[in-house]
Write a structure and sequence with these properties.
The protein is built from no helices and 26 strands. With 211 residues, it is an all-beta fold. The strands form 5 sheets. A 9-stranded mixed sheet has the order 1-4-7-10-13-16-19-21-22, with no helix packed on it.
Length: 211
């Protein structure tokens, strides 16, 4: 594969993968067996697309994303840098799904407006979870395996259940944080400190308006 300017792209694409010619695959990225990358999809650098995964038309992934086996990422989803999508995760794109119109005719692409899921930097969605568009998963947030997300997830939140609700805070390492009092939280793995204000969490030293 070659970029328009002629620069060689060092990506790895399995022979059985179906990658549209208009898709852009970043340097160092791998697309594994039986996966499908649709028209005008964009993968950043060092992404991994697992066996049987689906990346929809125009979906964009930042750098260092992992989409594991059999995950379905429907357009117009947006994944920022470092996003993890677990096995068999589904990111939907139709808030009111129907196969047919009220008159009984088969729906076409022009008969509905796709809505997407946005995943912010460092977020992770556990195996077999479903994110019902339109929702945003915040920075470094974690969706537990099997959850059904129907509303936006705050930065650094760990959500679980059906529908998903916040049960803990997590740090950038993905480990649940320990409360140390006065709205302060600590990562037991890295020692990084976080501050909770009005139901939102941010790393210590980060201004609230930056969050």
């Amino acid at each position: 594969m070659v970029r328009p300017e002629g620069e060689l792209v060092t990506s790895r694409i399995a022979a059985s993968a179906d990658v549209d010619a208009s898709a852009q695959i970043g340097d160092g990225s791998s697309v594994w067996n039986l996966s499908q990358i649709r028209e005008n999809a964009v993968l950043g650098k060092n992404c991994i697309i697992g066996r049987g995964a689906y990346i929809g038309t125009g979906v964009t992934l930042g750098d260092n994303c992992k989409v594991q086996n059999d995950a379905l990422v429907y357009e117009p989803a947006v994944l920022e840098d470092g996003v993890f999508i677990g096995p068999a995760v589904v990111l939907t794109n139709d808030h009111f799904p129907r196969a047919i119109n009220p008159d009984g005719t088969l729906k076409s692409a022009s008969d509905w407006d796709a809505v997407g899921v946005t995943l912010r930097t460092g977020s992770a969605v556990g195996a077999r979870s479903v994110c019902v568009a339109p929702v945003t998963i915040g920075r470094w947030a974690t969706v537990a395996a099997g959850a059904v997300v129907t509303k936006d997830v705050p930065d650094f939140a760990l959500v679980a259940g059906v529908p998903a609700r916040r049960i803990k805070w997590v740090g950038k390492a993905g480990v649940p944080l320990q409360e140390v009092g006065n709205g302060d939280w600590k990562c037991p793995q890295t020692g990084e400190m976080y501050i909770e204000t009005d139901g939102r969490l941010r790393p210590a030293g980060e201004n609230q308006e930056e969050n």
